[in-house]
Specification:
Number of strands: 8
Structural class: alpha/beta
Strand order of the largest sheet: 5-4-3-2-1-8-7-6
Largest sheet: 8 strands, parallel
Strand content: 5-15%
Distance between the termini: 14 Å
Order of helices and strands: EHEHEHEHEHEHHEHEHH
Shape: globular
């Protein structure tokens, strides 16, 4: 098991000014960080950042999104779907330069863009077609995949673990790994821990986000985070447990994730208490 920290708590684009944050996370004991790849215009930037992380001894995963409707994998317009492919291939190039071992996130549709209807078979097929073009390139770069279902207020295509497992089968081939996020599962799953078991049993569990019910400090809300960590150890999970929390520092992301108030006193509270919760729960499970 490795403990990670999603850097979206501070920024959507990690720069030199964030190195003190990276150093603090290393001192706390984190194994690595989750780097947002939203700006794909400069692959050399991610090569530089990978070198910084190597120097600090921090491993890394990456997280990406679909920027907007002009790159939607669900679009009826083939040129828009090709733009989705092009965007995800650019993300792949950046992730490879970064040295990321895994690409996480909801890169199946733009955040907060809805059809007003349940996901259609046509939308699912369109998205699967985009992924069939992208997944071989991720595999060739040695980058694992962890697609993240979102709650119904942020997306409509994939909300539950069951839907995501079915979508993975629709893609065919080697398919895709899935991400289990405790925040989204709390909203969408009738039995979140059973859903987690189902993803693991299917061999699709590639990544886990530890996120509190209010997106704040892990352990200060009502989610069964300790039970989740204990279950993962019992199941034999040996991947990342990455803390994800959001504040109001990034206006666009705050708007997309409906963050309208502060959920914690300081970022240090989030990563310090979250790290301790994960480590204690893991070590207490035999």
């Amino acid at each position: 098991m490795k403990i990670g920290m999603n850097l979206l708590l501070w920024t959507g684009h990690v720069r030199a000014e964030h190195i003190p944050v990276l150093e603090a996370l290393k001192r706390k004991g984190f194994d690595g960080v989750e780097v947002p790849i939203f700006d794909t215009g400069d692959t050399a930037h991610y090569r530089w950042l990978g070198g910084v992380l190597d120097g600090l001894g921090l491993q890394r995963t990456a997280v990406a999104i679909i920027p907007g409707p002009a790159e939607s994998p669900l679009s009826p317009d083939p040129s828009v779907r090709q733009a989705a492919v092009d965007h995800l291939l650019s993300v792949t190039d950046c992730a490879a330069e970064l040295g990321a071992e895994l690409l996480a996130g909801p890169w199946f549709q733009p955040l907060g863009v809805f059809s007003g209807q349940p996901p259609s078979e046509t939308e699912l097929d369109r998205c699967a077609g985009v992924f069939r073009k992208v997944l071989p390139q991720l595999a060739a770069a040695g980058i694992g995949t962890a697609l993240e279902p979102l709650n119904r207020f942020e997306a409509h295509l994939l909300n539950t673990c069951e839907q995501s497992l079915a979508f993975a089968e629709r893609i065919g081939g080697n398919g895709i790994g899935l991400l289990y996020d405790t925040f989204h599962a709390n909203i969408e799953e009738q039995a979140p821990l059973s859903a987690l078991e189902a993803v693991h049993r299917a061999g699709r569990l590639a990544h886990v986000h530890i996120s509190e019910n209010d997106r704040g400090t892990p352990g200060r809300g009502h989610l069964p985070l300790r039970e989740t960590v204990c279950l993962l150890k019992t199941l034999g999970y040996d991947g990342w447990l990455t803390i994800e929390a959001f504040g109001r520092g990034l206006p666009e992301l705050a708007a997309a994730t409906r963050v309208w108030r502060d959920f914690f006193a300081t970022p240090e509270e989030v990563y310090s208490e979250g790290f301790d919760l994960i480590q204690t729960a893991w070590e207490s499970t035999r």
